[in-house]
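Schema walk-through. Below, the input block comes first and the output block second. Nothing else is stored per chain. Lengths vary across the set, and this one has 438 residues.
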Amino acid sequence: MNNSQTRPYAKAAQGHDASNGGWFNRNVFLFGLTSLLSDFCHEMATAVFPQFMQAIGAPAVALGFIEGVADALSSFVKLGAGYHSDKIGHRKIWTGIGYLLTAVGKPIFAFAFAWPLILVGRVVAWLGRGIRSPLRDAMLAESVPSAYRGKAFGFHRAGDTTGAVLGPLAAFGLLSLLAHHPAPVQTLGRWLPFLAETSGGAFRVIFLLTLIPGLLSVITIFLVKEKRREPNHELNFMGALRAMPKDYQYFLLGVGLFGMADFAPTLMILRATTVLEPQMGMIEASRVAALLYLLRNVIYAVASYPIGALSDRFSRSRTLAVGYGIAVVSFIGFAVVVPTVWWFAIFFPLAGLFIAWEDTVEGTAVRDYVGADLAGTAYGVLGVVNGLGDFISSFAVGLLWTVVSPAWGFGYAIVVGIAGTALMATIRCCSTRQELPG
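--- output ---
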């Protein structure tokens, strides 16, 4: 292999940063705003998604299968999109396309009478997520000095999760409005008859309205200023994969093992809904479950920045292992439930804390191992590992829930989660202690 081919693989993880100075700049703000709008769209639908599945008669195994398949397909797209962006030297246009697909995927749910069309909508939305996520993270990492990267990612996750707070809150408000005042559904039913004549009409209206914040996120991402690099047409896919450092490969092993326990949050919502429904009824249990999910996301938003800042001071792998341990505790709460709202009011916030820990630290750690020229590919590989783990975990929990009992499904997550936590605690991470610019 000649020198031009080996050049991209020789970059050190701690190379020169694309940005000098502090961490809070135009790009960091815009990435946070874009993610806020996109997650508003996503979480508005997610808050009522499991209940809609119940309304159309879909079993828990179908929910687990949909979430798992969408995540798995998305993960492979992440790898291809990340590698392609490293090769062509720019990322913003494809990132915008990804946000557009995410925006149009959710309204497809409104037209579903059985779960296969929901699978189509979920796949479209998650393909968009697969395209945008590694490219956005690579651009974000290049927008700040390395010593501040944890803060930038923490701010981004906080913005993302603020949208995840507003989305369920909007869903809760709309459910309350439409439950007591069905006239809007009936009015829309004059132009879209299926809204008034089929089950889950209120849920279908919510899915259609997600298009508004989704399209706004497409507009804001194009306001980001990208520093383009020279195209690297000599970069080949297998060579880029082989160039991933050994330490990064071990890190991915720990992420993957824990990922096989980290099931989709919609299964938590479904658990709360089914446990509370006998006392409250379907609509009231759905409203409470949406509020509990909102509480989870509030904790997620509040915790993201402090966790990111903490990871700038300590080993990210050890910090991540603490978050994984918190996840295991939350899994126990969903396995052994007490049929009261207060029980779930304890364990939904724990779930928010661990996902803030996981998402912030995993994304930040990538650039501790890999240089800028391979950042897209590295984030793509992380996406594949997480996606495969999500598929296995969501499908396994959903299958065990349907075939045996919910406790067996969450029990599986507990056992595998403990193994993933133990492995991550033993993995070495590159030092994050670096000189601050200036």
